[in-house]
Design brief:
By secondary structure, the chain is α/β, with parallel strands linked by helices. Helices cover 36% and strands 24% of the residues. The strands form six sheets. Strands 4-5-6-10-7 form a five-stranded mixed beta sheet. It has a five-stranded mixed beta sheet with strand order 15-14-16-17-18, sandwiched between helices. Helix 5 links the parallel strand 14 and strand 15. Helix 8 packs antiparallel against helix 9 and helix 8 crosses helix 11. 47% of the residues are buried. It holds the Pfam family CbiD.
Length: 374
C-alpha cells in the first residue's frame, strides 16, 4: 500500500490499472511457481516511471489457471472504486511455436469491467474499457512474471471487478457509453488525493465522446444539482452534451475550444459565478478568496445604496453578499452584472470562436441571471 503522502498529509493510493497489473502478476506467479505472494512489485505506466509494491488479498488455483484479487486503495482520494476487489484469472493457453520462442499476452475484460459503446474514447467501440496505459502496465507486469520463470507461450488474462456494474453507477461511465462495469484507468499508476489530472481527464473524455457523436454544444456544470437545472433549462441538448466540470472553468473552455465546439454554456450557482467573474481559472473555494470589493462595485453599478455596498464588501461568502442586496430588480441586476463579468472571463479562456452563455440558478429555484455572447 502506498505510504507516500502529498503535502498536507494526504495519503496517495493506486489506480485500478495498478490493481489489475498486480492481480495479473500475482495470478501468474502462483500459476507458474506454486507460490502465493503476499505482495507483488509492478511497474508504473511509462518508461522509467518507477515501481509500486501492492498487497495481494488472495490468490488461488482455478481450473487450468489461477486467480488473484487485489483490493483497490485510493488513499485519501474520494474515489468510487476505493475498496473494490479487482481480480485477474490467468491461463497459459499454449506454448509458443516460434523460433526463437516468444510471449503473447491477451488481455480481456470479464465481469464488472465495462464495454465501450460510443466513439471518442481511447478504447475502440466494443472493446473492454481497459485504457491503453493500464493495458500496457498489465502486460508488462505479466511479462515480468513469465520472464522470471522462463516461460513462453500465449497467456490469457481476464480482468474482473466484483460488483463493478454497481460501482459504475456512482461514476460517469454510463454517461460516456461505458456499459456493464467500471473502466480500468490510470495514466500514472498512482492516485493523488483530489487529483486535478483525474478530473481534467474525465472532462476531456466527456468532451471527446460528445464531439465524436456530432454534438457541437458543450454544456458545463459545477455539480449534479446545477447539471439537473441546466438540463431542464436546455431541453434541446442531448444528455451527452452535459459535462460536470466542477471547478475547472478555464480548462473546460480551452479543451472544448480545442475540439471545435461551436457553443459552450455554463450552469452554476452564485458562489461559483462570483469566482468566474474574478477571472480565476480554477474556482474552488480554497484556491482563491472571493473578491468582495469587486462584488460591492458591481452591486453599486446595479444601483445598490452605498450602505448596501459597504455591507457586501464585508460579507462572509458570495451567497451572503447576494442576500445582502434587496430582492427583486436590484438583486437581479446585481446577478446580471456578475454574470456579464463572468462571461468576459469565459471569452478570455474559450477564444473568439464559440458562442458562450452562462446561466446562474437561484439557490431555491429558477434562473437568477443569464448572459450571452455570440
Amino acid at each position: 500500500m502506498p505510504r507516500n503522502r502529498e503535502s498536507g498529509g494526504l495519503r496517495q493510493g493506486f489506480t485500478t490499472g495498478s490493481a489489475a497489473a498486480a492481480a495479473a502478476k500475482a495470478a501468474l506467479t502462483l500459476l507458474l511457481g506454486g507460490e502465493t505472494p503476499a505482495t507483488v512489485d509492478v511497474p508504473l505506466p511509462g518508461e522509467d516511471a518507477g515501481r509500486l509494491t501492492i498487497p495481494v488479498e488472495e490468490a488461488r488455483p482455478e481450473g487450468r489457471g489461477a486467480r488473484a484479487v487485489v483490493v483497490k486503495d485510493a488513499g485519501d482520494d474520494p474515489d468510487a472504486t476505493h475498496g473494490a476487489r479487482i481480480g485477474c484469472l490467468a491461463v497459459i493457453e499454449g506454448m509458443d511455436g516460434r523460433e526463437p520462442p516468444g510471449v503473447e499476452v491477451v488481455i480481456e475484460g470479464g465481469g464488472g469491467v465495462g464495454r465501450v459503446t460510443l466513439p471518442g474514447l481511447p478504447v475502440p467501440v466494443g472493446m473492454a474499457a481497459i485504457n491503453p496505459a493500464p493495458r500496457e502496465q498489465i502486460e508488462r507486469a505479466a511479462r515480468e512474471a513469465l520472464r522470471a520463470r522462463g516461460v513462453h507461450g500465449r497467456v490469457l488474462l481476464i480482468i474482473e471487478v466484483e460488483g463493478g456494474e454497481e460501482i459504475a453507477r456512482r461514476t460517469l461511465n454510463p454517461r460516456l457509453g461505458i456499459i456493464g462495469g467500471i473502466s480500468i484507468l490510470g495514466t500514472q499508476g498512482i492516485v493523488k488525493p483530489y487529483s486535478h489530472a483525474a478530473w481534467e481527464a474525465t472532462i476531456g473524455s466527456g468532451l471527446a465522446v460528445a464531439r465524436a457523436a456530432g454534438i457541437a454544444t458543450a454544456a458545463f456544470s459545477t455539480g449534479r444539482r446545477s447539471e439537473r437545472l441546466l438540463m431542464r433549462h436546455r431541453p434541446d441538448l442531448p444528455q451527452l452534451a452535459f459535462i460536470q466540470a466542477a471547478d475547472f472553468f478555464a480548462h473546460s473552455l480551452r479543451q472544448a475550444s480545442s475540439l471545435d465546439f461551436s457553443e459552450m454554456v455554463w450552469g452554476c450557482f452564485f458562489g461559483k459565478l462570483a469566482k468566474m467573474a474574478q477571472g480565476v481559472p480554477y474556482t474552488h473555494a480554497h484556491a482563491e478568496p472571493v473578491d468582495f470589493a469587486l462584488l460591492a462595485e458591481m452591486a453599486g453599478q446595479a444601483g445598490a445604496a452605498p450602505e448596501t455596498c459597504a455591507r457586501v464588501a464585508r460579507a462572509n461568502t458570495a451567497r451572503h453578499a447576494l442576500e445582502i442586496v434587496p430582492e427583486g430588480a436590484l438583486r437581479e441586476g446585481f446577478a446580471a452584472r456578475t454574470a456579464a463579468r463572468a462571461l468576459e472571463a469565459a471569452r478570455s479562456f474559450a477564444g473568439a470562436g464559440p458562442r458562450l452563455s452562462i446561466v446562474c440558478f437561484g439557490f431555491e429555484s429558477g434562473v437568477l441571471a443569464e448572459a450571452y455572447a455570440s
